[in-house]
Amino acid sequence: MPVISFALSIMLDDVSPGQVLGRYELLMPVARGGMASVWAARLKGTRGFQKLVAIKTMLPGLVDDPSFERMFLDEASLASQVRHPHVIEIMDLGEQDRILYLVMEWVSGEALSIIMKYAATRGGIPLPIAVHIATQTCRGLHAAHELREPDGVLVGLVHRDVSPQNVLVTYDGVVKVVDFGVAKATARLDTQTEAGQLKGKIAYMSPEQLRGEKIDRRTDVFAMGILLYMMTTGKHPFRGDDQAQTIARISSDEPAILPSVLVPGYPPGLEAVAMQALAKDPAKRYPSANDMLIGLQRALPSAMRESTDEEVSEFIRRLVPDRLEAGARASRSA
Question: pTM to 2 decimals?
Answer without folding.
Answer: 0.88
